[in-house]
Design a protein that fits this description.
Elements: H1 2-6, E1 15-23, E2 26-34, E3 40-44, E4 48-50, H2 72-80, E5 84-85, E6 90-97, H3 111-114, E7 118-120, H4 128-131, H5 141-156, E8 163-166, H6 172-178, H7 180-190, E9 199-208, E10 211-212, E11 226-228, H8 245-266, H9 275-290, E12 295-296, H10 297-311, E13 315-316, H11 318-334, E14 338-339, H12 348-372, E15 381-382, E16 394-399, E17 403-408, H13 414-425
Parallel strand pairs: 4-11, 12-14, 13-15
Antiparallel strand pairs: 1-2, 2-3, 5-10, 5-16, 6-9, 7-8, 8-9, 16-17
Helix pairs in contact: 2-12, 10-11, 10-12, 11-12
The structure holds flavin-adenine dinucleotide.
Length: 431
């Protein structure tokens, strides 16, 4: 941000992007409005880099900030003509807080387990003994999340549907020196002192491995001039991202994608625009602003988040996913009767309506792909298919028109496999 300011790159901090504008499968800009005063923006651009995050706020508990990661990247890209890849691959972090509801899912750092935190179920059992007796609480993120989920599902969870994470046996100075943010967060959100009491936690949706289909070389998409990066993109982290790899990815691909987009723009002989595309974006915004139906946007967002938690959470099944799709049909039918009411405080209600549209699209893609991935792989657990299926070592690519299709994954070039083997042997691989 500071570097952008130094370079005098304009930053529109309060603009909500509603549409990526295209003409004949080529980007020519973006459309949106100011969330404070409703001013419309029409931006012309040769290239657009989509960096609008993932879709983990379509679950009830999420580590994301409020009103972010509602799948905007997914909808913006798909409506522009791009496809999605592996939307079902979502990482659940084991330790999100449960209360208060508006902060549900806020992360308790894994450092709490790393420093010696102990996990117990409502019966007081140290349940990791059942799942990973060697590593116990230091087991991997996905195994701990699955273990906590299983305890809760099998009736050994707390009244609020969680398990206990306890660091109160650690010396107070260790907590204050090594876990100051966890201490501070818990005081702020629950007035709970972790040096004395255990924290009630449950798995929380944390990271979207899937996202917009991109070319691995430069993260270009199916649409000329449209690029995606970070949680908006897909492919780099396979079925389960290693902790810590996301910010590195952003730095590395920030450079690669920035250079690719600049080169694309420099080589573009001319930019064509489409008044139809602009009219469609403007028309949809006008239509939503005039919507005066009986359905509340926030209530429908909650309905999607509940449905995804119940039917596409840490563990999925054919029956549950199909039930999820049935519920989604009903929610989408209700979306035809929205009431949207900007007020003196701003145009947030309009932004929530677009978030809702994005969430519904992201939920459908996720449910359909999760149904098709009839195996357990990485962060995707199917109770009815508990093993990995070699035939499904593929990417699942989704679009509203084609549904889910399979795409082969290129083999890793030998020199790169060799490099990975070398650094692993030397023990330099972080995780
Ligand atoms: C609590 C927590 C701790 C983490 N710790 C680590 C760590 O230690 N190491 C690590 O590597 N990773 C970590 N991660 C993951 C990492 O932070 C994220 O993967 C990364 O920030 C994703 O960056 P992004 O730019 O893709 O998306 P985001 O950071 O989600 O940014 C997306 C941006 O797009 C904006 N946006 C979305 N839709 C619209 C729209 N329609 N119009 C306008 N703007 C829009 C949002 O407001 C947001 O500013 C952590 C994540 C969390 C939640």
């Amino acid at each position: 941000m500071q570097r952008s300011e130094q370079l005098e790159i304009p930053i529109l901090d309060t603009m909500y992007v509603t549409d990526i504008l295209t003409d004949d499968n080529r980007v020519f800009g973006a459309y949106g409005f100011d969330i404070n005063d409703g001013t419309r923006y029409l931006i012309h651009a040769d290239a657009v880099i989509l960096a609008a995050g993932g879709h983990n706020r379509i679950w009830r508990r999420t580590s994301s900030r409020r009103d972010e990661n509602t799948g905007d990247s997914f909808r913006l890209a798909v409506e522009a003509g791009a496809r999605l890849r592996d939307p079902e691959l979502v990482q659940f972090h084991p330790s999100g807080i449960i209360e208060p509801e508006h902060a549900a899912g806020t992360l308790i750092s894994e450092a709490a387990r790393g420093e010696g935190g102990i996990l117990r179920n409502a019966l007081g059992e140290r349940f990791m003994e059942r799942y990973d007796p060697e590593r116990m609480e230091l087991s991997t993120r996905d195994r701990v999340a699955l273990a906590a989920y299983t305890e809760i599902q099998e009736g050994r969870g707390t009244e609020n549907g969680g398990v206990w994470l306890d660091v109160s046996h650690l010396p107070r100075h260790t907590i204050m020196e090594r876990l100051p943010r966890v201490y501070q967060t818990m005081i702020e959100v629950q007035m709970l002192d972790i040096t004395r009491e255990a924290v009630e936690i449950a798995p929380t949706a944390h990271y979207s491995m899937g996202g917009v289909w991109v070319n691995p070389e430069d993260h270009s998409t199916d649409v000329d001039g449209l690029y995606a990066i970070g949680e908006a993109s897909s492919g780099l982290h396979g079925a389960n991202r290693l902790g810590g790899n996301s910010l590195i990815e952003l730095l590395v691909y920030g450079r690669i994608v920035g250079q690719a987009a600049a080169a694309y723009s420099a080589n573009l002989p001319a930019q064509t625009r489409s008044t139809d595309a602009i009219d469609a974006a403007r028309g949809e915004l006008d239509r939503l602003l005039a919507a005066d139906g009986a359905e509340n946007v926030r209530a429908l967002q909650r309905a999607i988040r509940n449905m995804m938690t119940d039917h596409a959470g840490v563990v999925r099944s054919e029956e549950g996913l199909r039930e999820g799709l049935r519920k989604l049909d009903a929610i989408e039918a209700r979306m035809a009767d929205l009431g949207i009411h900007p007020d003196i405080a701003g145009f947030q209600d309009l932004a929530h309506a677009y978030d809702l549209k994005s969430s519904a699209l992201a939920a459908r893609a996720t449910l359909e792909a999760a149904l098709e991935r009839r195996e357990t792989r990485g962060a995707h657990n199917r109770s009815d298919y508990p093993e990995m299926d070699p035939d499904l070592q593929v990417n699942l690519v989704w679009s509203p028109d084609t549904g889910v299709t399979r795409e082969a994954i290129d083999p890793i070039p030998e020199e790169i496999s060799e490099l990975i083997r070398e650094v692993s042997v030397e023990g330099k691989l972080v995780e």
